[in-house]
């Protein structure tokens, strides 16, 4: 028997259906909901989703921190008959969620790199806060 080790990056996702690599933009997490329990979790290409799956979530959305937390939190309230596949999917998606170039974090870093504030278009003038000093009037508690 020959064992071949394949080097995989932490950002490599593998389709549970066909065994080929899949990128987050084309991946889907699917499962079957039965009453108060969820079963048969799979991370697949959109074309490889099992016919028995009744629920699905697009991975392109799950890699956002809020969507990821909402997905995982929703699973806490359900009975999971076989948790290993779900655990593997959560671990596979976690590096995408916490990576430094995640979209929501990228906006903050991009703004900071231009010396601007988030939400202010680079090249435009941000509204400066009022100067505090002896001439500045301070109103409080009306």
Question: What key phrases describe this protein's structure?
Answer:
single chain; globular; 4-stranded mixed beta sheet; 142 residues
What does this structure look like?
The protein has 142 residues and is of the alpha+beta class. Helix content is 30%, strand content 19%. The protein is built from four helices and six strands. The chain has helices at residues 59-62, 65-76, 83-98, 103-113, and strands at residues 13-14, 21-22, 27-34, 37-45, 55-58, 79-80. The strands form two sheets. It has a four-stranded mixed beta sheet. A hairpin with a 6-residue loop joins strand 1 (13-14) and strand 2. The longest helix is centred in the middle third of the chain and has 16 residues, at 83-98. The N and C termini lie far apart (81 Å). Mean pLDDT is 77; it is low at 1-7 and 128-133.
